[in-house]
Amino acid sequence: MSRIQMVDLRSQYERIKPEVDRAIQEVLNSTAFINGPEVKLFAEELAKYTGSEFVIPCANGTDALQIAMMALGFEPGDEVIVPTFTYVATVEVIALLGLKPRFVDVLPDTYELDPNGLEKALTPQTVGIVPVHLYGQCTNMENVLSFAKKNKLKVIEDTAQAIGAVYTYSDGSKSQAGTIGDVGTTSFFPSKNLGCFGDGGAMFTQDSELAERLRMVANHGQKKKYYHDSIGVNSRLDTLQAAILRVKLGHLNRYSASRNEVADRYDDAFRGLPMVKIPKRAKNSSHVFHQYTLQVEGGRRDEMKAFLQEKGVPSMVYYPVPLHLQNAYREFGYNEGDFPVAESLCKKVLSLPIHTEMNLDDQDFIIKTVKSFFK
Ligand SMILES: *Cc1c(COP(=O)(O)O)cnc(C)c1O
Q: By alpha-carbon position, which residue is closest to atom 14 of ligand 1?
């Protein structure tokens, strides 16, 4: 039995090694390490894949969020609505830019912004809202869009965990995650569903002027070299990473399908178990299973994690502390009890290994081990 990992990047690489190695070698031969032709080609191919008008590559998913907020003109003192149950990057850039996060609780089974909490978070200073497509499934974007429209808020979709997920509107039409809000942001961190061999990120928009501003902010606030119209940042996708991503984009459908096969097997195996909840599939979104996350009831999550670890099955808690209770964000004045759903999820969630190259033996072993905890 191979040692089971949360994510197996080595077998994923080995399966596409000739293609990837060739792409890397070509960049090395060209020495166009910064802004080489692959960067533009990858952006065009990702635009085609996602159906987005514009794709602007950048250095990572955190930068993508920051650049989006800068390009949308958010100013110190402005407020941005965010879920408290998400990765820290979302709120970090808000605080860094001198904006104020307005936390909202999440729904207990899909982890999306609780639509009932939005009004309460709204103030005259609110300028934006950041829905996060957590674990690989889209937020109900129609809720977000109608709230945003009514209150003139900009929508930034954090799509770092959900690239390729498809949202279906109530009229039946479809859009990919990231292409629905004013700006969508994503990350190509190696373990993300479309991961490179280092850091990378991108922004999506359907608005040509905004695309221009995003490009400008990401490039030191300049359109023309050495003429700086706004304060910007330096955030580029390396040519090497773009070349790797071009190869991997060609496999993304297969990657999503493999993740779904594993998730389906886990669902079938765990559906009847007492004390665990399998992931809820939203009606209006496909799932790309960045994570397969169980909820363990009865206060036994940590015990189960330790049990699995001892048997050789890794698992992870995404996330153990909601953002409103993190020390770094105390100054924003939130307290324990403010967002009971998120606080309780932090004690229940447990993500199992899921990746693109999982063999049946490993899946069976994980299933058997999880089941044996409840015997
Ligand atoms: C990974 C992630 C990010 C940040 O991406 P980086 O490329 O690591 O900066 C942002 N938001 C969410 C929800 C993420 O999962």
A: 160
**Stretch(es) of the chain classified as CATH 3.90.1150.10:** 252-373
CATH number of 252-373: 3.90.1150.10
Residue 277 and residue 295: Cα distance in Å, rounded? Answer: 5
CB of 307 shorter than 6 A to ligand 1: no
CATH 3.40.640.10 range(s) for the chain read 9-104+111-249
* Residues 192, 160 contacting (CB under 8 angstroms): yes
Residue nearest to atom 6 of ligand 1 (CA): 61
Q: How confident is the model at residue 2 (pLDDT cuts 50, 70, 90)?
A: low
Minimal-distance CA residue to ligand 1 atom 3: 61
Q: Please give the class, per CATH, of domain 9-104+111-249.
A: alpha beta
| pLDDT tens column, 94-116 | 999 999 999 999 999 999 999 99
CA–CA separation, 7 vs 20, rounded Å? Answer: 19
Choose one of 187, 290, 291 to mutate for the ligand 1 pocket test, by most ligand atoms within 8 angstroms of C-beta: 187
Using CA of residue 113, residue 267, residue 10, residue 309, what is the dihedral sign?
positive
Ligand 1 pocket test, candidate residues 132, 137, 189, most atoms within 8 A of CB: 189
CA distance linking residue 38 with residue 236, whole number of Å = 12
Tens digits of residue pLDDT in 138-150: 999 999 999 999 9
Query: The pTM is what?
Result: 0.97
